[in-house]
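[Automated response] Your request has been received and processed.

Submitted sequence:
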Amino acid sequence: MKAVRLMEIGQPLQMQEIPVPAVGRRDILVQVKAAGICHSDVHYRAGISPAGPLPLTLGHEVAGVVAAVGEEVTNVRPGDRVCLHYLITCGECEYCARGSEQFCRHASMIGKYRDGGFAEYIAVPARNAFILPPEISFEIGAIMMCSSATSFHALRKAGLQAGERVAIFGVGGLGMSAVQLARAFGAIEVFAVDIDPAKLELAKRFGAVPIDNRRGDAVEQIRELTGGAGVDVAVELIGLPATIRQAIDAVGIFGRVVLVGLSDRTLSIHPYRDFVLREAQLIGSSDHLAQEIPLLLELARRKALDLSAVVTRTIPLDAASINAAMDELEHFGSGVVRTVVVP
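Generated structure:
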């Protein structure tokens, strides 16, 4: 089968012909119908976030059709439409036992530590497959497995309550989901912070107050619009020191700052001014949980989460096309919100 793979850190992905993966007793083989390109893929290619062993097929946002199942599989059948939870875990360690499987001692993430979805087929444990409702396309089902699920988990980590105000820093793929999910959680007001006019306009369509970071400091704009109080929750999805700093400065008393964006840079904070004085919290949010996916899919089925305008481009399973899309993400370029590979 064809697969687009990371052969060397810092170098473009390459197309390879590799065997169709074998299916174990509790595994399934999925014919990939859609695989999203995530900013994390850019970090893996650049070496900002470790990935391997190489060569490695990237792509952790995957949806498709079950092609074959192992003899012990009962939850899905050949022909089922599915989306794939990308964290493959042991199910037995202390973290799995308490429902925090993203810290599983034996976890292996598809597209990062084992072959992912930039390929014609992928094999995963059957428990990682969730039935994709007919109302949800393969393209949308794929990107939900990272961008939407990660945003959902971040808002849960923030303890967002109905009636609170939220600022989303970065309204790309994750941010568009975060805006809508914050509204579904009951946020009374959602501020969308970005520098891309097209993304800000789309966020506005989803009910957010657009904050253009090119037209003056975002924190000052948010403070003015909230009567000086700031927001209750700020979610930083970019990973830049400047926007992390703004997220910290944008929250008010008892504010919670949730960091999601990946970065290899450091940031200075003033513990007393930034956190102690306001009893604010700085929260890290890593990945998401399998237990969160069914509700997320139901929100999408009911259109409380509508990603139809977020998938703005599909490309073939082609190394040059995938590398070009990743180059755009690396430089925070273009108005494209989400690119999906359709083999």
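Summary generated for your ticket: The chain has two domains: 2-132+310-341, 148-284. The two ends are 11 Å apart (CA to CA).
If you did not submit this request, please reply to this message.
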